[in-house]
Design a protein that fits this description.
It comes from Centropus bengalensis (lesser coucal). The protein has about 700 residues and is α/β, with parallel strands linked by helices. Among the domains are: about 100 residues, no CATH class; about 230 residues, Leucine-rich repeat, LRR (right-handed beta-alpha superhelix) (Alpha-Beta Horseshoe), CATH 3.80.10.10. The protein has 28 helices and 22 strands. The strands form two sheets. It has a 20-stranded parallel beta sheet, sandwiched between helices. Strands 18-20 form a two-stranded parallel sheet. It is globular. About 5% of the residues have low confidence.
């Protein structure tokens, strides 16, 4: 922060002359205000403004926990000075995702002798540096690190291993087949494992998880209470996690109360995993559960598992029927007030009594959803995306009407086809031209009807009494909303070439468009919004309403809205962006998107914007407009564009941005690359995991993992 004018320091400010002086507030109020200021600014700048602030900025309530995560302006020198000034006062240090800091920065953490919790996920840490640092942190009980190629556990000193033996919580992200530091953590109560190992090395060699077999040490799980594993796509990740699970299958910890494995695709059950699950069914009572779909489908596992006071369930992509869900999980509709987070994403039959003879598009059984809502009345996070949840014509039993009873919801993910009014579909069935996906580039004549651009006219045209409008009105405290087409798939998957063809939207979704988007503007406290595959977007006018009403919006993701051959909502989007002063993350995925001067000029109004990602097949960009935007928006530290421009144009622009802005923005990460280029996957692997996981790759994030899984 800049030094204040002399009159502020001397206490003769204009505010004081008008009877308002910030320094006259009580210490409690000032401490609360200062808690919103980044710690680096407090210690290195604010405390130098006057004597009172000099004392308050070093208050234990402000220095006890230091969060550098997403403090994109912090650099090595600031960290060094921060540790020198208040290192002994820091008990919790979060440096997660500080990928831009050199590995030598970690050396300064040794000044924090009293550290209890340390998060270094996404930071560059070698085995030797880790050993030196941990040797000095005798009070450490919680640790998060990455294990990269070249990690060697034999380089860890005896003092380091002594520290690790006292660690109770470990979060470990693996980029190479290894046990990492797990065998040294003999007192573990919580273990979080993120498997990000690629099947091939940079040189093209196939990797094998069996490289771990030669390691002499094995994990110690006897005190384990929480086991969580999240796997990126790839068979090596599956091989490695099986080695971690092998020890669990021999002896299941008696105090285990949360067992969660998130695995994409097919992850087959083996004899060892079956023994593990059988042992869990006999010996433990769980509070949180997530298993690969192959471990649940067709088995009677859920009938035998015992639950205590469950707070999280995920049955993502399972073929679990609604009948089994009610009988085996919710105990026939008994009280489950403890459940706060439920993920049924891709669980296509979860709202039907049985799945044997049912088609995925058949109507849901509203009584099952009603039992779910009544039993789990305290749900805060609910994911029903990636499935066709079609309501019947029964009055009062629409999915939106039933969900409106969940007054505590903070985040919600729904398929597009689930929010449409049944009556509207009956009265106005989709025309043949709407049902057939239009070829790219083909212009469709809308007709003579005009479409309003403001909330009032839209409300008059499409009844405010619609079920979705009423749902949005009843969930006034909702912070995260995802409305995603049941057949939507991003053009940019994780470890594969870009998808060239997309499936048409569900027939029931054909009428969902501008008025439904306008209904979202009732969510005054909305912070994150995802809209994907809404086919009836004609002008995007509802976006303007959101921009005006949802002033807390920080994350916006739009994908495949309206006609696929033309970006029909661009004008409305530009109007919307002028009002989004708090927007930090913007992701756009739309074929034929033209990112020109007008777009970037509108985007420049988003003064808080930090990350921008555009994915557009056959899309174009204007290089000088991008450069002007980067110069105007000083907070932007991530610019990812995967479009239809040539490799030469992309590389030239990327180099220009880095050359012009890297010096002033240490965290700057720029990737501009042709979407359909064969080397896209190689480029993606160099993107910091923080950005890749949070914005660049499209996915549903509601109830993705248990709340407060890590501090």
């Amino acid at each position: 922060l800049p030094h204040p004018p002399q009159e502020l320091v001397s206490g003769e400010s204009e505010e004081e002359s008008n009877g308002v002086n910030l320094m006259e507030f009580s210490d409690e109020i000032l401490l609360h205000i200062l808690s919103y200021v980044p710690c680096t600014d407090l210690v290195l700048n604010v405390r130098r403004t006057c004597r009172k602030l000099a004392t308050l900025c070093l208050d234990k309530s402000l220095t006890h926990t230091v969060v550098l995560q997403k403090d994109y302006k912090v650099n090595k020198d600031k960290v060094k000075q921060l540790m020198r000034d208040i290192g002994k006062e820091i008990y919790q240090l979060n440096m997660a995702g500080c990928y831009w800091l050199p590995s030598s920065t970690i050396d300064h953490v040794t000044r924090c002798k009293n550290l209890v919790k340390l998060n270094l996920s996404g930071c560059h840490v070698t085995s030797l540096r880790l050993s030196k640092m941990l040797s000095t942190l005798q009070h450490l009980r919680s640790l998060a690190i990455d294990v990269n190629p070249g990690f060697d556990a034999s380089q860890l000193s005896s003092e380091c291993k002594a520290t690790l033996s006292r660690v109770l919580e470990l979060k470990q992200t693996l980029y190479t087949p290894s046990y990492g530091v797990v065998p040294c953590c003999t007192s573990l109560e919580k273990l979080l494992l993120y498997f990000e190992i690629l099947d091939r090395s940079r040189e093209g060699f196939m990797l094998s998880g069996q490289l771990m077999v030669g390691e002499s040490n094995v994990p110690h799980y006897q005190n384990l209470r929480v086991f969580y594993a999240r796997l990126a796509p790839g068979y090596v990740n599956q091989e490695v996690v099986r080695l971690y699970l092998a020890v669990l299958s021999d002896r299941t910890p008696e105090n285990l109360h949360a067992f969660l494995i998130s695995a994409p695709g097919s992850f087959a059950e083996t004899g060892a995993t079956k023994n593990l699950l059988d042992s869990m069914a006999r010996n433990v009572r769980l509070d949180a559960l997530q298993l690969p779909k192959a471990w649940i489908n067709g088995s009677g596992l859920l009938q035998h598992l015992k639950f205590n006071n469950p707070f999280y369930f995920s049955f993502s992509r399972c073929t679990l029927s609604g009948g089994h869900l009610i009988q085996r999980v919710i105990n026939g509709g008994k009280d489950l007030k403890s459940l706060t987070s439920l993920n049924l994403s891709g669980c296509v039959h979860c709202l039907a009594p049985e799945s044997l003879f049912r088609k995925a598009e058949d109507d849901i059984d509203s009584s099952i959803l009603e039992s779910l809502v009544v039993s789990c009345c305290n749900l805060r996070h609910l994911n029903l995306s990636a499935a066709h949840h079609h309501s019947s014509e029964s009055i009062g039993n629409h999915l939106c009407q039933l969900l409106s009873r969940l007054k505590h919801l903070l985040s919600l993910a729904l398929p597009v086809c689930s929010i449409t009014d049944v009556a509207a579909n009956v009265e106005k069935p989709p025309t043949a031209s709407n049902l057939v996906p239009q070829p790219f580039g083909k212009k469709v004549r809308i007709g003579i009807q005009t479409y309003p651009r403001n909330l009032t006219d839209q409300a008059n045209q499409k009844l405010e009494s619609s079920v979705f409008w009423a749902l949005m009105g009843s969930l006034r405290f909702l912070e995260t909303l995802e409305i995603i087409g049941s057949s939507f798939s991003s053009a940019m998957p994780r470890n594969e070439p870009a998808i060239r063809n997309s499936l048409p939207p569900c027939v029931r979704a054909q009428s969902v468009g501008d008025s439904e988007v306008a209904a979202i503007s009732q969510l005054t406290y909305l912070q994150s919004l995802t809209l994907a595959q809404l086919p009836n977007i004609l002008t995007g006018s509802g976006l303007i309403s959101i921009g005006l009403q949802c002033q807390h919006l920080r994350t916006l993701s739009l994908a495949n809205l309206g006609m696929m051959g033309k970006v029909v909502y661009m004008s409305a989007l530009m109007d919307m962006l002028k009002h989004c002063k708090c927007l930090r993350d913007l992701r756009l995925e739309q074929p034929y998107l033209c990112a020109g001067a007008q777009f970037f000029q509108a985007l420049s109004h988003c003064s808080s914007l930090q990350r921008l990602c555009i994915v557009s097949r056959s899309g174009t960009l204007q290089s000088d407009a991008v450069m002007s935007f980067m110069a105007n928006c000083l907070e932007v530290i991530m610019c990812h564009m995967f479009m239809g421009e040539s490799l030469t144009v992309c590389k030239t622009l990327q180099q220009s941005i880095v050359r012009s802005f890297q010096a002033d923005r240490p965290a700057l990460n720029v990737v501009i690359f042709p979407l359909l280029h064969e080397d896209l996957t190689e480029v993606i692997r160099d993107v910091p995991m923080r950005h890749l996981d949070e914005i660049t790759l499209f996915k549903s994030r509601v109830a993705e993992e248990p709340p407060n899984l890590w501090w």
